[in-house]
Amino acid sequence: MGKRKAIAANARKEALKTVYFAKLRNVPTSPRKMRLVVDMIRGMEVNRALGVLKFSSKEASARVEKLLRSAIANWEQKNERKAESGELYVTEVFVDCGATLKRMRPAPQGRGYRIRKRSNHVTLYVGSKNTNDNQN
Predict the structure, then answer these.
(1) At 67, is the secondary structure helix, strand, or coil?
(2) pLDDT digit string (tens) for 16-74?
(3) Which fold has domain 20-135?
(4) How far apart are CA 120 and CA 94, in angstroms?
């Protein structure tokens, strides 16, 4: 690796040390359904977001709750202390499309209807309120 690339790689590593996130990949739910759940917690304090997800009737909320707990644990691991109430917020969360499985369903008169089984990737960032203010 050249000197310029090594310097850029080290800069990226240092930048990642101050970012706290978790990713959930290849979730067998359509991105549209997942975005409904994710929109409920965007910008919320993490303890309140956990409560919202726990009592939500959506199937995807259980997966996002587990992902949020993972992001909180990542924050605690990097900062070497426990997260206190009111300190952490969901700073950014987004859902991207994943792979789509294409299947055929028998239809009348010898036809076949296409079924698309969609999946998605969820990325969730947590941070403290003062870093959230600096970004805006």
Answers:
(1) helix
(2) 888 999 999 999 999 999 999 999 999 999 999 999 999 999 999 999 999 999 999 99
(3) Ribosomal Protein L22; Chain A (3.90.470)
(4) 10
**Domain layout of the chain by residue ranges:** 20-135
Q: Summarize pLDDT for 60-114 with one digit per residue, the tens.
A: 999 999 999 999 999 999 988 898 888 899 999 999 999 999 999 999 999 999 9
For residue 61, how many other CB atoms are within 10 A of its CB?
20
Q: Helix, strand, coil proportions of the chain in percent (round to 5)?
A: 45, 30, 25
DSSP 118: -
DSSP category for residue 90: E
